[in-house]
Specification:
Layout lengths: L1 H27 L16 E4 L4 E4 L4 E6 L2 E5 L17 E3 L11 H7 L14 H14 L17 E3 L1
Antiparallel strand pairs: 1-2, 1-5, 2-3, 3-4, 4-6
């Protein structure tokens, strides 16, 4: 009888570990970036008025217009490599769930012009960003530290 209780307890523990593992994996899929605004877990896209681009949260890609086409890339275009995503305003597009948010670009660009700021936003990793800024200040002092240059990676993109 005691052996049977141990086997049942082992099965319950194994099953609960499996359920927990499945939950943590599903929470990480399509997670918002650390620079995203707090409180919008259900959104699919952000519109970034300062750079006139979109960010696809599920695909972790920026969508911007260049060379006569809409481009999907892990990085912003080269001219925005120093753009601070933590400080820039993000318009959360709760009402669009298709695959081409740029279909509303003309309206978005008029409604949210460059420099647009709606309600104050706090980023998801606000505390980590403050630590990052403190470290950058330390690195930029006269002690010979390295200066951060933003997006150093070459563009990996698809054209549409």
């Amino acid at each position: 009888m005691r052996t049977l209780k141990l086997i049942v307890a082992g099965i319950i523990l194994f099953a609960s570990n499996s359920i927990h593992a499945q939950i943590s994996v599903s929470l990480n899929i399509g997670a918002p970036p650390s620079w995203g605004p707090v409180g919008y877990e259900e959104a699919d896209y952000y519109y970034l008025p300062d750079v006139e681009a979109y960010y696809d949260i599920r695909a972790s890609q920026f969508i911007y217009f260049g060379g006569g086409r809409w481009i999907r890339s892990r990085y912003l275009p080269r001219e925005y490599r120093n753009y601070d995503l933590y400080k820039g305003y993000k318009v959360v597009l709760n009402d669009y769930h298709g695959s081409r948010p740029y279909r509303n670009f003309d309206n978005d660009r008029l409604r949210y012009r460059r420099g647009y700021h709606g309600r104050p936003q706090r980023t998801i990793n606000y505390d980590n960003r403050r630590e990052h800024d403190d470290q950058r200040e330390y690195n930029n002092d006269d002690s010979g530290g390295n200066e951060e240059h933003g997006n150093k990676h070459e563009h990996e993109h698809e054209r549409y």
